[in-house]
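Protocol step 4 of 5: obtain the predicted structure for the target chain.
Materials: sequence only (see below). No template structures provided, no constraints applied. The aim of this step is simply to have a reference model before the mutagenesis design in step 5. Sequence pasted as it appears in the construct record:
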Amino acid sequence: MSFSRSITRAAVTGLVTSSSLCASAIAQTSSEAARIERLERAVELLEKQNAELRAEINSLKAKQASSSSENKTKTKISYDGKRYVEKAVEEKPPAYVRQRGPELKLVLGGYIQMNFEDGDVSAFEGSFGQRALKDRFRIRRARLNLTGEFAEQFDFKVEGDFGQGDGLNSNRTAFSATDIFINWHQFPEAQFKLGQWKAPFGLEQLTPDPTLIIIERSLPTGAITPDRQIGAQLWGKPFAGLWPDQTDLLTYYVGIFKGNGRNVTINDNNNFMYVARLESTLFKSDKGSGAYLKLGADILNSRDDAGTNISPTSNLLVNSDGSLSPFVLPSPDERTAWSADAWLRLGSFDLIGEFLQERVRPRAVNGAPPAFARFTTDGYYVTAAYFLIPKKLQLAAQWQHLNPGQKANDGLSSITGGLNYYIHGDDLKLMVNYIHTWSDFREANPELGSDQFDEVIGRMQLMF
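Step 4 output (structure tokens):
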């Protein structure tokens, strides 16, 4: 650019000099005035071009200065064995990911839960006798998720788990989808959700895994609740617009799902599972104490074909030795379930309770007789917890009972004592549980073996 500017200046100087000589040489001719006018116009044109070149040079200089400021340097001190040496090194910008679409927000996260299980492993879920498990270390959950907001009216979530099966084989560990959904939230009073997630049934089941007070969910929750399903749901908070201070006073969920579990592309029949839930936070402290009382109720109806697992996350079928296994229907059924729950928090104290019941009735299809008898399963749990050291050390206890309702005296009860240490809230915490379980069926049939079982579970959790 300097070379171009020099040429421009030389050209301007030459033209000015030439114009002066020409003007004095032809001052007496008749065309003298016209020639001078043409030369003046040429000089004006050159001056305009020179100004444009100057502006372009200034712009290039500004860009060069901006570029050099981005390549920042930092001072690095190193020791060569004799002395400390200070030198400037280039500081490279951090790597980043840019979303393809016009999303307003993208959040990448996940968590890891590692279990140590010793004693009568999972006896509280009916895994004893012919179903007994050995002591183990276990990757309980290892999840990655991506959440985001799109076009100001939609939110979404994509999550998968490295630590569980694909929904078809519980003995195989592989990466599989957990939550994948899109939610239209333009109107808080009526939001629409489509995809795969937990059907809205059961307080303990809907409580996020990283925030559980007891390491594992209770047997009644696992045996009766439907867990993750594929479907659609209408839900919302009716008072969000009318009464903003009481947004949580009422929340409703109404969903329609395939009913045969997660990550299954086909439906077992032409029927669907219908689920509804109501929640009400009767009071909630706004003074920082975190006190509240929340009540909830659920209802479910489903017509299933043979081969459907109606206890997808736990055990329900009573075996001959009193142990439990997943209940895979030998013939079609219709089932109806309901539950009621409450959660009271007063400062450092939590009290949580839930009762669940499910009636399973066989159906005759195409004249084929049912392959099992109708039964009613019910169960409950009560959980209490208290922070011995606020937000750090928590003492927890739980009583649970399940009556499968398939054999006489087939009830299974457990009592759990636990200690939770919150190193950095739920993001980093340690948990230890001791579980004592006893089987009514084995107590009534002592020839089957011991009816008392003990287990210790330890967990380390990291969220990121």
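Step 4 remarks: The chain has five helices and 20 strands. The domain at 104-463 is CATH 2.40.160.10 (Porin).
Proceed to step 5.
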